[in-house]
Amino acid sequence: MEVASLWREPERRKKPSFGALEFHDVFKIYRSGPVETVALRGLELRVEPREFVAVFGPSGSGKSTMLHLAAALDQPSAGDVRVFGRSLAGLDENELAAFRARDASIVFQSGNLWSGMSARENVALALRLAGRKRVDVPVDRALDAFDLRRRERTRAGALSGGEQQRVAIAAAAAREAPLVLADEPTAELDERNERNVLEAFARLRAQFESTVVVVTHSPRVADAVDRVIELRDGRAA
User: Fold this and answer.
1) Which of 11, 45, 126, 152 would bridge with 120, disulfide CB 3.0–4.6 Å?
2) Among 191, 184, 170, which residue's Cα sits nearest to residue 213?
3) Which residues are registered as beta bridge partners of 87?
4) pTM of the entire structure?
5) Is the pLDDT of residue 7 over 60?
6) Quick one: 210 exposed, middle or buried, by C-beta within 10 A (0-12, 13-18, 19+)?
7) Phi and psi dihedrals of 150, rounded to 5?
């Protein structure tokens, strides 16, 4: 008697149809009187969920403009910017504020923290701004993950540059921001601190499952990321 096989092909996870960050034919034009400056020229770009990428390019290539549009700090002149499949153009002011507080975290070159507040208070503040009421457990977890517990009571203004950047990364981790955007985060750091910050970004991706996009001029960043995207004249090269 023939016996029916009980074997079944393992279920395969389908690759998401959307990226963590997508630019579709995006233009950005700045106007000052009769003068027009085209920062982005039909930019096409896709970053996958949980990818760690670096964006390189000469000054004026559109790197910072791209980052500001991804963070909903500015709007494109034409085209569509999408984050995890959602078009930012369709969000009203309240929804954009919620997006910045909960879904996207921005790490700038400097000035990410309140200098008079401790490292712990800065991380907790990021959670409260995102609407979280219970903050102690996620703050503890983030401080431990980035080796900041011994400095948690230190005012941010008294921390080294590398420590300040790691606190900013810990704040993104505490609120589990799915998209983390960094604008020249290691530009003011020496090589050792730059390495520590890049390791922190890698841990943010691996342990907290964030998608990380770093705009940079540093060649050392290229060795730490999954992929390098080059911008030239407002387009992906």
Assistant:
1) 152
2) 184
3) 82
4) 0.88
5) no
6) buried
7) -70, -15
